[in-house]
Design goal:
Length: 413
């Protein structure tokens, strides 16, 4: 059994920007007891505690045609499957979202400058105002590209679940999610094209983590990694952009995406409710370690200056200089204050794991470096962005069901 010790090391996280890989002291949170990620990954063990999440190897199509399987459909997912109609939207239909809406990229920042902490550093202060605007918008491009790549990963992972889930209800849900992730790929692809022409390449950290999840044989890695962590991350990111973007088109897009993501997260929550209480200690430790290692990877590597080397170079700046100045400018207290923000994406991730029962006394000290665990524990189960998603669904209902006759006619055409 691994034990996790608390360290004073914390990282500046202004909503979704994590700056630096180590604190002033140079220490890392799991120094000496940090999870060996390769060891965790190499331990291939299928953990299925509920028939609704039972799986077969991805190449065992014959198991999908067993006649007794068709009548053993779980009803656990019927509610979120039926709700698909309520949050349907079409990214190529301007009734839902119009990607021809203009934005003055040359003179206006897509996001609030408060969300671009580099602008406060000495090396950026020397840039002309036009270059500061360009940097803020290129940062937005870099981040929106990451979202696009993440949605592609979610699409492929959802499709991979269709190959391994035995239960017809679970399989139907996964197919629905794959369709919804596909529209996200279309929508964010259209947004990036409308504002910048094309996306930036995927970062090494995000690419590696998504690939691990998509190719994982264990259903718990797919669900904990994607349905809980990545979907939780997405809800936090979209809520942050919804509240801080100056581009009305991006605000609308984030709300529409959140109407889907809220349901994707519920699929993972159902798994947690049906699985976590039935685990033995070894299985719980395995899942807990997997979740902690994913969180650690996201926290330390997802959007730190090293991941943005090419972006800084375009402005004649060295990423190491940016990182050094950031570490000098931000105190530990600043970092802790940022993590109190309900929309801070890493706070959202910790709450997601805690409410799912994937954080125990064994790992709580590690997460407590960043957030007040008792405060999180006392909060209700609602996730950041749920209210925004519900408002979005109300809008979609007016479009989808406001004129049923016209809708039927359009579908027939």
């Amino acid at each position: 059994m691994r034990h996790y010790c608390q360290s004073p090391s914390v990282f500046y996280t202004h909503n979704f920007f994590v700056i630096g890989q180590q604190s002033e002291s140079g220490s890392r949170p799991w120094s000496g007891n940090r999870v060996d990620r390769e060891t965790v990954m190499s331990n291939v063990k299928q953990i299925t505690k509920d028939e609704a999440y039972d799986t077969v190897p991805p190449g065992d199509f014959a198991a999908m045609m067993e006649v007794d399987r068709y009548n053993k459909r779980s009803t656990a997912f019927d509610k979120i499957i039926s709700a698909t109609h309520d949050h349907f939207w079409d990214p190529v239909d301007p009734r839902y979202i119009d990607f021809s809406e203009p934005f003055d990229l040359e003179n206006e920042m897509i996001v609030s400058p408060d969300m671009v902490p580099e602008l406060n550093l000495p090396c950026f202060q020397a840039l002309p105002e036009k270059e500061k605007v360009r940097f803020a918008n290129e940062t937005a491009r870099w981040f929106m590209s990451s979202i696009l790549h993440g949605e592609q990963g979610a699409l492929n992972l959802s499709a991979s679940l269709c190959h391994i889930l035995r239960d017809p209800g679970a399989q139907e849900y996964a197919a629905n999610q794959a369709r919804e992730e596909a529209r996200h790929v279309t929508a964010f692809g259209r947004y990036v094209k409308a504002r910048w022409g094309k996306p930036l390449p995927v970062g090494e950290t995000l690419s590696g983590l998504l690939s691990e999840m998509v190719h994982a044989q264990e259903v718990y890695k797919k669900i904990v990694g994607m349905q809980l962590l990545v979907e939780g991350l997405a809800m936090g990111v979209f809520a942050t952009l919804y509240n801080n973007s100056r581009d009305p088109l991006l605000v609308k897009l984030c709300q529409l995406a959140m109407t889907d993501e809220a349901f994707h997260h519920k699929f993972g929550k159902i798994w947690a409710d049906r699985t976590i209480p039935k685990l033995d200690q070894e299985e719980r430790d395995l899942i807990e370690d997997w979740a902690a290692s994913c969180f650690q990877t996201l926290l330390f590597n997802l959007v730190n200056p090293e991941q943005k080397k090419a972006l800084y170079a375009d402005f004649g700046l060295d990423w190491q200089q940016v990182q050094a100045e950031m570490l000098d400018a931000v105190t530990d207290e600043d970092r802790r204050e940022e993590m109190k923000d309900a929309t801070n994406v890493f706070r959202v991730l910790v709450k997601t794991l805690l409410k799912a029962g994937i954080i125990t006394e064994r790992t709580k000290p590690f997460y407590a470096v960043y957030v007040d665990m008792e405060e999180l524990n006392n909060e209700d189960d609602r996730m950041v962005g749920d209210d925004i998603a519900e408002q979005g669904i109300s809008f979609l209902k007016t479009v989808n069901f406001g004129n049923k006759k016209a809708g039927v006619q359009a579908a027939a055409e």
